[in-house]
Amino acid sequence: DAKTTQPPSMDCAEGRAANLPCNHSTISGNEYVYWYRQIHSQGPQYIIHGLKNNETNEMASLIITEDRKSSTLILPHATLRDTAVYYCIVFAPEGAQKLVFGQGTRLTINP
Amino acid sequence: DTGVSQDPRHKITKRGQNVTFRCDPISEHNRLYWYRQTLGQGPEFLTYFQNEAQLEKSRLLSDRFSAERPKGSFSTLEIQRTEQGDSAMYLCASSLEGYTIYFGEGSWLTVV
């Protein structure tokens, strides 16, 4: 079973910041928070990951709370092409673990 | 393109036929994963390899399914005696141990 909880759907206006929350209250010390997204009919695309510090790359920012029990993915200037299902996954890549996907959040960017 | 490559991208087969999907991982990636995804659901883990060794198989991988990675590079997923319930997208992914997992574009299977 997935170890994360996400809202099933969210809407955001084009050009605004999209903030996608994720709860992972049972995260272990060696587990990272990973975010992927899946645009219709395509394979999941890696976005960003972090352990405990906030992270930023060219796609998004990841804010992880100090207790690591929740995080927020931020798409700073959402475009229509950001419409997708976003998955938050806790994962320890060093161990014999695989990614366990939940239902994710279906993000719709509206013009 | 140096990403994960899957072939064929789409396959339509009659019930009872065998199908095989191929996955070429990112060069030097020693871990290779197979997932299945049906409409409206998130990807479900099927199996994974570290080099040529198959280290874990899901209960979803019935006796009709077999995966191989003979030389630790490309992998094949074969489905024997296909059933309509096998219709899904089959995803392959790869990684270096300890690093991010990257997915291919998937192979769509339709069993008629």
Identify the notable features of this structure and list them briefly:
A: mainly beta; 5-stranded mixed beta sheet; 9 strands; about 0% helix; about 45% strand; globular; B: about 110 residues; mainly beta; 7-stranded mixed beta sheet; 4-stranded antiparallel beta sheet; about 50% strand
Query: Radius of gyration of chain B from the CA trace?
Result: 13 Å
Uncertain spans of chain A, ≥5 residues at pLDDT below 50? none
Number of helices of chain A: 0
Strand order of the largest sheet of chain A: 1-9-8-3-4
Shape of chain A: globular
Shape, per Cα inertia axes of chain B: globular
Biggest sheet record of chain A: 5 strands, mixed
Oligomerization status of the protein chains: heterodimer
* Rg of chain A (C-alpha, Å): 13 Å
Q: How would a textbook summarize the main sheet of chain B? A: 7 strands, mixed
Number of helices of chain B: 0
Find the structural class of chain A using helix and strand composition.
mainly beta
Kindly estimate the percentage of residues of chain B that lie in beta strands according to DSSP. over 45%
Question: How far is the N terminus from the C terminus of chain A?
Answer: 35 Å
The helix content of chain A, as a percent range, equals under 10%
Whole-number mean pLDDT of chain A: 94
Structural class of chain B: mainly beta
